[in-house]
Write a structure and sequence with these properties.
By secondary structure, the chain is of the alpha+beta class. The chain has four helices and 21 strands.
Length: 381
């Protein structure tokens, strides 16, 4: 009896185990049916790769090497040469009665700039006229004393006193006259106005007075500043790491933003001894002859040529495509394709304008499409 019960228990255990295993297998099957299909990764299209039907229609050229000196390109601005700035100093204080020039005008030496109504001049004429009157009296007394002395009527001491008074009176007259001339007036023509003339020729680069304003004698700010702009300064900011490429006396090629096709030459006259602590740059000053179209405040680009020589990659100028302020070249690729490569273009060679430097992005020996513009036009269709 016990043997039969044991057999029935084993049989039930086997059935139960079988049902459990079948349930697990079914669950795994259901999960497999509900799982997403495997991802099919499609490679993205290369935006720099282009296919053409007849690549043989586009001739190729090999990039070559060209030795050249190292270059440093910096930016700056045109400033006046402070040694050529001449302040216009008013020697008399008073109210500005008239102004005959304006800021930015070109003036010649001796040209009338402004007229001042001055109490200094009025006081100077008063002092001068009193000195003249005193001198007339002193001269008359001296002549009378001289006559009396010759007739033995007075002592020699009295004559000497009269002569001393006459000499002092003459000095007072000469001093008063010289003071009026210093103010710019004629002692023989008493007026209360003072004319201020240009001490030199140049351009008025600063004006601190207007009609009706007050002008102070020997005081700053000066009424006008006249600058000789035949020679100007170009001041550039050079980064600390590039200062070794700049030396005193070096020449630089300067181009104005206003006239990019015209080149000027300058000479380095000073390298700043103090760095800007914020941007880590030093001021480099160059002296440049101004033909007349360099104006103060203009932005410039200066190129310094170093002493060391470097090898630059050279390609035909037509192989460089300038687009959206960037430079590109087309290089051949397998399966009738061309790849557009971004480069940093340089200057045209001075001895051959058909060749252009490529600073980065291309190595000597690589082939490029000779006429990038034609290929780009075909690809755009």
């Amino acid at each position: 009896m016990k043997s039969k019960v044991l057999q029935i228990a084993v049989l039930l255990s086997a059935v139960t185990l079988s049902l459990v295993l079948d349930g697990c297998t079914g669950a795994h099957a259901d999960q497999a049916d509900q799982a997403p299909p495997p991802a099919n990764v499609v490679p993205a299209a290369d935006a720099t790769l282009f296919s053409v039907d007849h690549p043989e229609q586009f001739p190729l050229a090999s990039a070559t090497e060209h030795p050249t000196t190292s270059e440093l390109v910096v930016t700056g601005s045109v400033t006046p040469d402070v040694s050529r700035n001449v302040p216009v100093v008013s020697l008399a204080s008073g109210r500005v009665n008239a102004i005959h020039v304006r800021l930015g005008d070109t003036v010649q030496k001796g040209q009338l700039l402004m007229t001042i109504r001055s109490d200094d001049v009025s006081g100077g004429y008063s002092t001068y006229r009193m000195a003249v009157a005193d001198e007339v009296l002193a001269r008359t007394q001296y002549e009378r004393a001289k006559d009396l002395y010759e007739h033995g009527a007075i002592a020699l001491n009295d004559l000497q006193v009269a002569q001393d008074a006459e000499d002092k009176a003459k000095i007072a007259v000469e001093t008063g006259a010289e003071h009026l001339r210093l103010l710019g007036n004629d002692p023989d023509k008493p007026v209360s106005m003072v004319d201020i003339f240009a001490p030199t020729s140049g351009v008025i680069t600063d004006q601190q007075v207007t009609s009706g304003s007050l002008a102070q004698a020997y005081s700053t700010p000066y009424p006008f500043t006249i600058s000789d702009l035949s020679s100007v300064w170009v001041v550039c900011d050079v980064y600390e790491n590039d200062l070794a490429s700049v030396r005193l006396g070096d020449s630089a090629e300067i181009r104005l933003n206003a006239y990019p096709d015209r080149m000027f030459r300058g000479k380095v006259s000073n390298i700043g001894s103090i760095l800007d602590p914020t941007i880590r740059t030093a001021k480099v000053r160059m002296e440049v002859q101004n033909p007349g179209n360099m104006r103060l405040g203009m932005f410039v680009k200066a190129t310094f040529h170093g002493q060391s020589r470097e090898m630059h990659t050279i390609v035909p100028a037509s192989a460089v495509l300038h687009m959206h302020d960037r430079d590109f070249v087309y290089v051949p690729a397998p399966d009738k394709k061309f790849r557009r490569v971004e480069v940093v273009g340089g200057d045209l060679l001075p001895d051959d304008v058909n060749l252009q430097e490529v600073k980065t992005g291309l190595k000597p020996g690589q082939q490029v499409v000779t006429n990038a513009l034609v290929l780009d036009h075909v690809l755009a269709q």
